[in-house]
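Q: For a teaching session next week I want to show students how multiple molecules come together into a single three-dimensional assembly. I've collected the sequence lines for a complex. Could you give me the predicted C-alpha cells for the whole thing so I can convert them for display?
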Amino acid sequence: KAGVTQTPRYLIKTRGQQVTLSCSPISGHRSVSWYQQTPGQGLQFLFEYFSETQRNKGNFPGRFSGRQFSNSRSEMNVSTLELGDSALYLCASSSQGSPDNSPLHFGNGTRLTVT
Amino acid sequence: QQPVQSPQAVILREGEDAVINCSSSKALYSVHWYRQKHGEAPVFLMILLKGGEQKGHEKISASFNEKKQQSSLYLTASQLSYSGTYFCGTSTGGGNKLTFGTGTQLKVEL
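A: Of course. Below is the structure for the complete assembly, covering every listed component.
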C-alpha cells in the first residue's frame, strides 16, 4: 500500500497570504489528523476528521481550518498567515475508528515558511 | 496539557540500554510511542492501552503504569539505527486526540 502523501513538500508564503495543504491517507483509512511541528513546541494537534466530519479540534485560532472529502483525502487551510505559522505540518491517518487506540501513519509533511 | 518526557536528550554507545519516560497529569486511556529521524516522518513503535493491551513491534518493550499515569520505553542493546527523537503521545480516551510530549533526542554512537 502507498503511504500517506502530503503535497506540496515545501511552501514559501508571505505574511497575510493564505495557504492550502493536501493530504491523501493510506487507502482504506478514514481518520485523518493534522499536527503542527515546531522546534520549541513539538507536535501540536490541529484537528481530526473522520468520514468528512471534524471530530476533534486543537487550540489553534480560527485562521486554521480543514475539511475532508468523501474519498478521505483532507485539506487544511491557513488564512492571513503570520510569521509564527512557519512550521512542518504533518498529516496522519489511522485505520480504526479512533486515533487513540490505533497507530498513526504519518506523511512526510509540508514545510511552510512564512516571510 | 502536554505529557512530560525525560530525559530530554541522551547519548549512548552502541550496545548500551536506555529508558525513556513519559508522564501525564491526567488519567490516561492510551500511550503511544513514535520515533522520528531527522527530516523524516514519525514512525509508529507501540501503543499501550489501559487494561494491559499492547500493540506494536516485537522488538520494542514498554510499560504503562495506570496508577501513576506513566509510561516507559525500553531500548536494549542499542544500535546506530535507534538514533532519532522519540515522542510519546497520550490520550484520555473517548476517541480523543493524541497529545504529544516534546520529545527525547537519542543518539547512538560507535
